[in-house]
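Person: I have long wanted to understand how a fold can be written as tokens. Underneath my words sits a plain record pairing an amino acid chain with its backbone structure tokens. Those tokens are not coordinates but codes from a learned vocabulary of shapes. I should like you to check that the lines agree and flag anything odd. The protein I mean follows directly.
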Amino acid sequence: MTKSADDIASSGQQGNDHGHGSFFGRRKGHKLRHHQSDLIEHLLPRLALDLDSADASDPGSLFDTPVNELRLEIGFGGGEHLIAEALAFPQTGFIGCEPYVNGMAKILSQIEAHNIPNIRLFAGDAAELLAWAPTSSFKRIDLIHPDPWPKRRHWKRRFVQDATIGQMSRIIDPAGEFRFVSDIDDYCSWTLMHMQRSKDFAWIAERADDWRMPWPHYTMTRYGRKADREGRKAAYLIFKRTNS
């Protein structure tokens, strides 16, 4: 059964209500414009990933045309990076995860404007998506400028945890990658500590510019440009899935 837009939106709040999962942020911000509301009502249900009905054994079947590989972006914000990647790699299937309604409305506007066929959207908890995905199904997972949850009592809400790293190691292809971007030094250190104690990933940086500079063809997000203007320098961390 196809879920309505209200069902899709409310599903993203469930993890928050139960006090677990990867996303604990606000669901809504500014009031949506009429066209944005129309996209949430009519376009989102066509692109939404419903974990209850989707074929977990063949996530490539989510797309109308064949795709060569799958990538996942967790917390895509306004969608600038995800849109650019989907346009640059039309044979790749992209799944974007974002519980924030305004972010979902922004990316739907871009998908409609560019008629992008290779993006599917998940409005719920990223941890549920990781648990649903089959083994070695994704070539790459991107986490770009996630909420750092700076207060110590909220650190358990950060996406990068031992449990999520374990799930990522299961669903990322043995030759795949996890890419992380943040302008918050503490969260970068946290991520390095957690990732480097995992036997399943290796940080590939060989020199300072490998993490101080964006990787080639990286699309800066609106938040990234704001951070740069305010003097906060981001780190660009790439972890390769190992065969250990």
About this structure: The chain is about 35% helix and 20% strand.
